[in-house]
C-alpha cells in the first residue's frame, strides 16, 4: 500500500504542477520507484531464504542466519533504498524538485532556496538527519527519539505546506524575494506560520524539542561509539541546530515583514477562514500535545523498541 502512494502523487505532480512538472514528475518516479526495486529485492530475498516456507514475519526473519555474501547483498539493497525514500544526502535531490513544482495538495501529501516550497522541502532533509542519528545510536533513547521526530516532522511539515498553500491562494506568489509585508493583510496565517516556524526549529514545549533532546541523549549515552565519533556527531547536530533558525526565521521575515506587498498581482487579500483555522489547529494540537506529554507516544513505542534492541544485541 505504501508504494501505491507513488501513483496519485505522480499524477498530481505531472498534471497540476508548475512549469517543470514533467521533469520533476519523471525524476520523482525514477528515484522513488528505483529505490523501491532495491527494497523489493531485499525483502523478497529475506523472505525466500529466511525459512523453509516463504514468510514476511519480522521475528522469524530476524532470528535466521544468512551467509555473509548474502547479507552484504541485502545490506547494499537496503542501503540504496532507504536513503532514497527518506531522503538522505546525496540521494535527496528528487524531494526539493518534487515539492517545488508540485501543486500544494501534492506537497501536503508527499511533505538558500528562493522558492518557498523548496525551502520547506529542504527542512525535511535537515530533520531526517536527526532521525538517522537516533536510529544509528542503537539505544533505547535514540530509537524512541527517532520515532518522536518522525511523528513530529509529519505534523509540522504538513502544516507548513498547508500554510504555504493558503498564502499562495491569497498572494499568488511563490518566490520569497517577491514577498513581504504579508503580516498586515493576513495576520491569522502570519501567526500560525510563525508558531510552526518555532516548532520546526525545536522550540521548548513543542514536539520537535523533545524529540531532538531524546536523540541527543541517545547518541551521547550509546556504547556503540567511541568518544571521537560522538564528538563529531554532536558537532554535526549542533550545526543543524544553528542553521535551522537561520533559514526558518529568514523565511518568515521575507514573507511577512517589509514593504513588498504592493508588488503582488492583486490588491485585495482575505485572511484565513474557519475551515482553514480548523485544519491548522487540528494539525497543531498534536505538536503541542507531544511536546508537553511525550510519554503517550513513548508508551506505545517502548515495547517495539526493546524488541528491536534485543534482536540486535542478543539474537
From TrEMBL:
One of its GO terms (cellular component) is chloroplast. The chain crosses the membrane at residues 28-46, 66-84, 120-138, 150-168, 189-219, 231-250, 277-294. Residues 2-105, 106-232 form the NADH:quinone oxidoreductase/Mrp antiporter transmembrane domain. Pfam families: Proton_antipo_M (PF00361). The keyword Membrane applies. GO terms for molecular function: NADH dehydrogenase (ubiquinone) activity; NADH dehydrogenase activity; ubiquinone binding. Keywords: Membrane, NAD, Translocase, Transmembrane, Transmembrane helix. The keyword Membrane applies. GO terms for biological process: ATP synthesis coupled electron transport; electron transport coupled proton transport. This is NADH:quinone oxidoreductase/Mrp antiporter transmembrane domain-containing protein. It comes from Gossypium barbadense. The lineage of its organism: Eukaryota, Viridiplantae, Streptophyta, Embryophyta, Tracheophyta.
